Every structure is written in structure tokens, then in C-alpha cells.
Amino acid sequence: DAKTTQPTSMDCAEGRAANLPCNHSTISGNEYVYWYRQIHSQGPQYIIHGLKNNETNEMASLIITEDRKSSTLILPHATLRDTAVYYCIVRVDYGGSQGNLIFGKGTKLSVKP
Amino acid sequence: DVKVTQSSRYLVKRTGEKVFLECVQDMDHENMFWYRQDPGLGLRLIYFSYDVKMKEKGDIPEGYSVSREKKERFSLILESASTNQTSMYLCASRKSGGTGNTIYFGEGSWLTVV
What is the reported pLDDT for A90? Predict the structure, then answer.
């Protein structure tokens, strides 16, 4: 699975959009981009994933560049409860029994009042 | 919403005890996983199961076993707990077949072995 690079930490004002970048320059054509977040002492929470096209759900938007070498997770109106460590993961999904997720260090997002 | 429920959030056990961690998912997922998460080491896969009674070792299976008698339930067993098994344990599940299937995690079980 391709390696990802994320900033160690970011701050965001409450109510503003939080834009979290991720570089994955060695991504291959069949690798998906997944985003999870983990609030202290809890299990990772799935946010969104995509292959080529931009994606949006009730939690966030995922913007993937045309060359797929980077992506941005957007939380449109950050709240204090969005303070967490955010992980960008790229992996091939074989659709079978393999499922190991490699979590890097992620980005610690602090949403401030 | 997918629900992965781990029976115990916090446990304290003594060295040598047999420990059972239970996990139940309500989405009829075929695949289930047990990970442990330690500071600086990220998530490490212990075991996964691709169907009832089917299991495969992950990266760190030593000292652990698993049981999957029913599709919705996946149990992690520490045969003889040791202090180096103090960790946060995460159960996860995923639908099999197709591609782009998401892995969903439980809340985690914090185990302290004294």
C-alpha cells in the first residue's frame, strides 16, 4: 500500500471549514483513499473514501487531485467535537478477506472556540 | 448505521488469567477483525475471520486465539494474560465481496494486565 504524508497538527476556528491535506504521490491506479478519525480513547471512526472522483457525505467532502497524488478532507463547519486525530490511508481493496489498514501518525486537528 | 459493539470498555486482569473480549456486529458482515493499538506502533492486526468458523492469523497472533461460531460474533481470547498484552483492543467488521468496502470499528476495549 502507498505511503501517505500528513501534517502533524492543525488548528481550526469553530464554525470554519477545516481542510486537511494528504500526500500520496506513489498511489497506484487501484488504490482507494480512506479517511478515518480517532477521538481520544475511542475506536477509529470512518469518515469517507474515494477512488478517483470527489466524494461528499453527511460528515465531509473528499477532494482528490486529477493525478491522484494528493487529496484534501474538508469538514465544512468544524465544531469542538471534531477535535481528533485524522488518518489518511491508501490501500488496495481486494474485496476479499484481506483488510489490514495501515494507520500512520495522522493529523491532530484542534478546533478552537 | 453500522454498529460494532465491544462488550467491555475497560478491564483489569491479573497475569495468567484467561481473558475473553467479545465483539458483535449488526450488519451481517462476513469479515471481522481484531487489532491492538499501542502508542507509537499504530494498529496491528491480530486475527481476522472471513466467515463463520474461518480465521487467519494477522501480524501478531502469538498469545491470542479467536472464535467465530456465529456470523455476528467474533471473540478474542488471551489464553494466559501477560503484562505486555496491556493495550487497547479494537474489533472491526467489513462486508465481503466487491471493492471499496469500508471497515467499521468498535469503541475499543482497554485492557490492563497487572
Answer: 86
Do the Cβ atoms of A104 and B42 come within 8 Å? yes
Q: What is the mean pLDDT of residues B82-98?
A: 90
pLDDT of residue B59: 86
- Inter-CA distances, A69 with A22, A84, B50, B64, B106, Å: 9, 24, 32, 38, 31
Q: Which residues of B touch A31 (CB under 8 A)?
A: none
Q: Given an 8 Å threshold on Cβ–Cβ distance, is A95 in contact with B43?
A: no
Residue B1 has pLDDT above 70, yes or no: no
Per-residue pLDDT at A2 exceeds 80: no
Determine, for residues A46 and B90 on separate chains, whether the beta-carbon distance falls below 8 Å: no
- Per-residue pLDDT, averaged over A30-48, amounts to 91
Provide the residue type at B53 as one letter: K
Which residue of chain B comes nearest to A44, CA vs CA? B105
Considering only CB atoms, B107 lies closest to which of A36, A42, A100, namely A42
pLDDT for B33 beyond 50:
yes
Over A7-66, what HEC string results? CCEEEEECCCCEEEEEECCCCCCCEEEEEEEECCCCCCEEEEEECCCCEECCCCEEEECC
